Queue: 4 jobs
Job 1
Amino acid sequence: KNEVEQSPQNLTAQEGEFITINCSYSVGISALHWLQQHPGGGIVSLFMLSSGKKKHGRLIATINIQEKHSSLHITASHPRDSAVYICAVPSGGGADGLTFGKGTHLIIQP
Amino acid sequence: NAGVTQTPKFRILKIGQSMTLQCTQDMNHNYMYWYRQDPGMGLKLIYYSVGAGITDKGEVPNGYNVSRSTTEDFPLRLELAAPSQTSVYFCASSYSTARAATNEKLFFGSGTQLSVL
């Protein structure tokens, strides 16, 4: 079964700062997901990536398959980016579905 | 386009009661999942389905049952509710398997906050 570790658990930053959230996993994968959970509880898929880098607006996700590590970056952070960011990888062990990290709680202060 | 619709949003049950959490999607997705989210923990897979008529257990299936009679619907049944089932439940769907590099996105319902007292 894949294990997922995210860091940091909590992050408070000032508006405009460059944000990095890290995700490490234990078993080789073919796909990694980054998700955003809004303060109201809803979950939105941000990225799925299997190699290299993806960019969407101010969000950039990178993955290093060899090191079993992914990062999510937010450039020019804004208070509306405040949310929980969750990394997820295939569970393995024959089950479909994902193993989720505990999330990084991000607060961007004006 | 409604996406994934989950009902109810909130529910309080007494110990021993039963209930069904409804989940429906209008994207013609084959893959559907039920997760639970406990405070400070990552989401955990309860059950999943890879198509109509096919279901399988996830990581934490005890105390739950599912069915998948149609592509659109994937209800989760709680029999004999226990306090340990107090949690937030999320239904999700995707076009292909979550393990595949071809799967671009997961779609989540808005969640059901369940308390068992």
Job 2
Amino acid sequence: EAGVVQSPRYKIIEKKQPVAFWCNPISGHNTLYWYRQNLGQGPELLIRYENEEAVDDSQLPKDRFSAERLKGVDSTLKIQPAELGDSAVYLCASRRDGSRYNEQFFGPGTRLTVL
Amino acid sequence: DAKTTQPNSMESNEEEPVHLPCNHSTISGTDYIHWYRQLPSQGPEYVIHGLTSNVNNRMASLAIAEDRKSSTLILHRATLRDAAVYYCIPVLQGAQKLVFGQGTRLTINP
């Protein structure tokens, strides 16, 4: 079974530029998460999707961040414009409803550096 | 969300057992205790979880205190590949989200 796929793995941009991250969850997983992980910290939830519906986006900075999950499969997270403080690792995770252990499966993340 | 307290770092030797503690004194009666770990340059991965009884799987064992205010993740025979940050996370039954703390950075010496 293929894991959660994320691209790109690394991205370096200048401040005020836009950037987008892509995630393909594990097949059959209806719940998709985007997390941000700052250096030395644990991941923090940005948004959670149940199928194509964003059901928890309370931590998403909506002035510059946006996300979509068309057709309830893969998802894109966008930042426009990026700021220096957005430098972090952006993690995508997925989960299947009714799974025995209710665990989330994480992708390797996208490391964003804003210069 | 229940608060957790874990040591910032721990160190152990290869092939020795490792006991990773976690205090979660504000845990509610229906919170499961989940453990995840994050290997270098990877996303977190599920390790184990439990409610009241001790649990074992192929990766680790989880010992939960009788009052449920603390738990210990046990790696029976650490390898270099177990070097990671380990997170203890109380999860409300049926909840869809994980709230990560800072975790414990485990170093394994050869």
Job 3
Amino acid sequence: GAGVSQTPSNKVTEKGKYVELRCDPISGHTALYWYRQSLGQGPEFLIYFQGTGAADDSGLPNDRFFAVRPEGSVSTLKIQRTERGDSAVYLCASSSWGGGSTDTQYFGPGTRLTVL
Amino acid sequence: SQQGEEDPQALSIQEGENATMNCSYKTSINNLQWYRQNSGRGLVHLILIRSNEREKHSGRLRVTLDTSKKSSSLLITASRAADTASYFCATESGGSYIPTFGRGTSLIVHP
């Protein structure tokens, strides 16, 4: 079946604007993860969903960042009042159940966000 | 914050040579995983090694883990130009199943 998809692939916005990034996980995967990756760095964890609920949002940098997964499938990462420092590639991953260390995460291609 | 640190940051080799990348981490782990990333986009899971394992193989990949030294190595044998990518280690610790990634090693394999 299809892998994890993310839209848009690229997003350019102006400082202060609001953006939404979408993630479509692999069908049937209950766990969904958002990461942010800056240039030359590894992915940095933002938030993890188990079903519809955020099981761990400790990685969200501040209250301008918010994510939802209302039906336990598609997730949207929302960033308010964007700042230039938010520019990065935002990666989404899903896994079948998220409850074990052997549960492989499958990553999407990412959304490259540029804040001018 | 990043738990694992890969070494070297960049590696350039000729096709057919072996490539070795190392990962060091700071705190005790449950497992360590290696991922590959092409062109700064999606990551692909390569191999997972548990804290009670010392070595694992998958095709041309060989991973070792030394928990006493808090380090792991990824060996790619008989490298190919298509192996050109960034390679990341990621650790899971305590009760968390959220992997913490290092900064990665950029590997270039020249044909």
Job 4
Amino acid sequence: KAGVTQTPRYLIKTRGQQVTLSCSPISGHRSVSWYQQTPGQGLQFLFEYFSETQRNKGNFPGRFSGRQFSNSRSEMNVSTLELGDSALYLCASSLDWDSTDTQYFGPGTRLTVL
Amino acid sequence: SQKIEQNSEALNIQEGKTATLTCNYTNYSPAYLQWYRQDPGRGPVFLLLIRENEKEKRKERLKVTFDTTLKQSLFHITASQPADSATYLCALRRGYGGSQGNLIFGKGTKLSVKP
């Protein structure tokens, strides 16, 4: 079974631009979560989608948004990029919307904002 | 708010020794703790889960303990190998059921096993 895939793997943008990241969950998984990972803050929860609905959102500004499609694939968007948005963005999928389900992480998208 | 701390940013040990990583938390006791392994350039990989009513969990060379009195979890790797070198993250869950957003991660401990 293929794992979680994320595209692109690397991205370089400049301040003020916007970016869209994509995540394909493991086949059959319906829940997708997004995380931001930085050396200073560690792994921080952005949002979670299940059945095309956002079920939970972390403490991030409205510039961060996401969506999920009917095939469970998900995208996240960051508008008006700031230098501090440079991070590894990780997507994780799980079978269902249940916190006891194991999460399977993708390799991440490394975003650099210049 | 709940805080989770992994005491060491880095841990260096000799091959064959037991590596012990520490995860401490403040405030309320979590429903359970998870441990993940993360290699450079990759996402975290789930290793073990231990619930609040469990004292110890084992999986091959891995052992996790959970002490709700000390508010601490210890993660042991016995007979460590250079291939065990990675960053290990602990994460705690505030309650059962519901969103994965209730999972709070520590910043990780980078383990280096020297041959």
